[in-house]
Amino acid sequence: MTETTSQRAGRQHSGGVMAETPAVEDVFDDTYEEKAGPKPARKLVWRNITLMTLLHVGALYGLFLIPSASMLTYAWTLVCFLISALGVTAGAHRLWSHRSYKASSPLRVFLALANSMAFQNDIYEWARDHRVHHKYSETDADPHNAKRGFFFSHIGWLLVRKHPDVIEKGQKLDLMDLKADRVVMFQRRHYKLSVVIFCFLVPMLVPWYFWGESLVVGYFLPGLLRYTLVLNATWLVNSAAHMWGNRPYDQTINPRENPLVAFSAIGEGFHNYHHTFPFDYSTSEFGCRLNLTTAFIDLMCLLGLATDCKRVSKDTISARKQRTGDGSHKSG
Ligand code: ST9
Ligand code: ZN
Ligand code: ZN
């Protein structure tokens, strides 16, 4: 098998510590070449364009309802934001896409429910697309290829048919680990129902039942507005964190370190680090700094619900910075 640049870099600088054989196919494949000739025509998906427009109009209406909500509803909206965010960051991303730590069954069930609350496609589809994103980053086979601009990588990719190479390359990935995970497959089988319950009904009904909030406020604030904010915070990782920020670990790739995105995406904005070392459970050199997801996984480890967190050694990081970084981390 041909060894990719990233795999070679891993071996050269690991000192034997780094995972030489990636557990999942999330390592950049520099042997892939985009097909020559004209690109396939862009095919708009009007159903998605309509739904996304309505969603954002609904979220805007939610903003106007903020003054009429109670303090408890504000707190509940934040709780829903954090739970659904963790379903994506600690769940679909760090656990299921990258296998950067191991989670017990109760934790996996919690993360799957939290993931349904985030309504970003089921875990299987999310992880499959995300592995293709890492393996074929910034090419035709990347679902949200940032070379196609901010709008495409942010939301546009969900409004058009995929480039055929995304599907072709995705079908070649080995997804046995996901197929073997009963929690993942159960969520996939019951995805629509779980979204109705956890993304819309639970956020709306809890404030109505427990503290008498109006159903309208419950629907638009912890429901639609929170959902739209989590979506946009996630999409910023694909758009802003592939465009703006330093590249202290590898200046030859597009993904950047973006503290604002790290804040809004509870720890997922250290994207130059993450694409350089995709198996690190913290997705950052700096542990819990601006990284609520790492704090959450650490807490789960303390409670015995998570184990085997993969980490890159300081020596490996510093050698990599010296070799391919842009010099923005002077101390490294
Ligand atoms: C959403 C996802 O928002 C967000 C993901 C973001 C990822 C971010 C990553 C960044 C790092 C992590 C940071 C986390 C931060 C979190 C912060 C929280 C505060 N391989 O899909 P179809 C097959 S979703 C293999 O229809 P079209 C497929 O199986 C939002 N096969 O393609 C199917 O086969 P079959 C809500 C693949 O027609 C066939 O191809 N959801 C692959 O081109 C057709 O599949 C939406 O908006 C693959 N990669 O349509 C819905 N892909 O027929 C969005 C596809 O045999 N999706 N296949 O079953 C869609 O409507 C459509 O997918 C489409 C493309 C219109 C976009
Ligand atoms: Zn990325
Ligand atoms: Zn990733």
Describe this structure in words.
By secondary structure, the protein is mainly alpha-helical. It has one domain (42-331). It is 57% helix and 1% strand. It has 15 helices and two strands. It has helices at residues 5-14, 46-65, 71-97, 105-118, 123-135, 150-154, 164-171, 176-179, 182-189, 191-211, 215-238, 259-264, 271-276, 292-302, 314-324; strands at 102-103, 306-307. It has a two-stranded antiparallel sheet with strand order 1-2. α3 packs antiparallel against α10 (191-211), α4 crosses α10 (191-211) and α10 crosses α11. The protein is globular, with a radius of gyration of 20 Å. The protein starts with a helix and ends in an 8-residue tail after the last helix. Residues 1-22 have low confidence and may be disordered. The structure holds stearoyl-coenzyme A and zinc ion (2 copies). One zinc ion is lined by residues 93, 97-98, 130, 134, 274, 278.
